[in-house]
Amino acid sequence: MSFDEFWKLYPRKIKKRDSEKAFMRLPAHEQEAALEALPNHIKYWKAKETDQEFIPHACTWLNQARWEDEIEIKEKAPPSLPWYSDEQLTMRKAAEVGVTPLAGEGWSELRKRISDKIRQLA
Hints:
- The protein is mainly α.
- The protein is built from six helices and no strands.
């Protein structure tokens, strides 16, 4: 277990000497726990799109035993597609606004009628 391994992974490279002192003050089992927890914290910061300035300095993270924090990583839901982006969504929207597809009608005509209906309902 070495500080260099920790520093290589830590995303905010500020106060290296203070961080090394904080790391070296930790017992070996806590150094190991911190290094083991770090990838999940990095994943958390990425998932939250944490700006670099809001990631704690490594020495703060170590001194406050932040590796023990309970973190919950919530993956962002993929953006929902608009109703007109595929046939299934178009049919759902047609049913929702009360537009029945006409025989021989193409998708573009149906989508136009749905749009017109949406404007009427607004």
